[in-house]
């Protein structure tokens, strides 16, 4: 009984805090629509290809890291995550990179915020988003049930 009251209390609290976001909440954050082609241009202009290839896109060869962006994924990369990966690289470390390195605290990706215009950032996100394909997990058809 007491446990139920506790859980109900927690629920109430989370509902209440949901109605009253903190000043740091991202509620209301919305960037204008980006342009995929201009995004690809920005990707080349800012030389992102020196460390990244993009699935299905012809780009000059990478000279470091060679981390592929885009392609099939089972987990959605949210808009907020993509923007954050670009303007605040050390806040989220890509799972692919983490799998290669042990104990990554800082991203080796340079911060481009002084050179990159806001428009380039918005277009970069549109460009990258358009190259991720969400795939459904498949149901195994090769199982043997004796
Ligand atoms: C000097 C190499 C380097 C350059 C240049 C570079 N990056 Fe990165 N980037 C990395 C590395 C290493 C990671 C993995 C660590 C991390 O997540 O920050 C990464 C991660 C990312 C991620 C997150 C990927 C994921 O799966 O979560 C995105 C998105 C990204 N970069 C976009 C860009 C864009 C756009 C540019 C050009 C403006 C750029 N990068 C330039 C090295 C680079």
In brief:
The chain has helices at residues 2-19, 36-45, 79-87, 95-100, 118-129, and strands at 52-54, 67-69, 71-73, 132-134. The chain has 146 residues and is mainly alpha-helical. The termini are far apart.
- What is the CATH top level name of the domain at 33-134? Mainly Alpha
Report the CATH superfamily of the domain at 33-134. Answer: Cytochrome c-like domain
- The total of beta strands comes to 4
- CA(first)-CA(last) distance: 45 Å
Bound molecules: heme C
CATH topology of the domain at 33-134: Cytochrome Bc1 Complex, Chain D, domain 2
Q: How many helices in DSSP terms?
A: 5
**How is the largest sheet built, in terms of strand order?**
1-2
Note down, in words, how this protein is organized:
It is a single chain. With 146 residues, the chain is mainly alpha-helical. It has a domain of 102 residues: Orthogonal Bundle (Cytochrome Bc1 Complex, Chain D, domain 2). The protein is 38% helix and 8% strand. The protein is built from five helices and four strands; from the N terminus they run H-H-E-E-E-H-H-H-E. The strands form two sheets. The protein has a two-stranded parallel sheet with strand order 1-2. It has a two-stranded parallel ribbon with strand order 3-4. 13% of the residues are buried. The chain binds heme C. The site of heme C has 24 residues, from strand 2, helix 3, helix 4 and helix 5.
């Amino acid at each position: 009984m007491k446990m139920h009251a506790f859980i109900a209390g927690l629920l109430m609290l989370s509902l209440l805090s949901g109605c009253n976001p903190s000043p740091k909440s991202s509620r209301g954050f919305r960037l204008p629509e980006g342009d995929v082609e201009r995004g690809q241009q920005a990707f080349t202009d800012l030389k992102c290809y020196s460390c990244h290839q993009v699935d299905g896109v012809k780009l000059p060869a990478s000279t470091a890291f060679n981390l592929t962006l885009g392609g099939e994924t089972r987990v959605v990369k949210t808009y907020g995550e993509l923007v954050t990966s670009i303007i605040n690289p050390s806040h989220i470390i890509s799972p692919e990179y983490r799998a290669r390195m042990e104990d990554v605290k800082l991203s080796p990706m340079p911060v481009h915020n002084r050179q990159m215009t806001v428009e380039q950032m918005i277009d970069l996100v549109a460009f990258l988003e358009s190259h991720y394909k969400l795939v459904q997990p498949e149901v195994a058809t090769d199982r043997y049930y004796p």
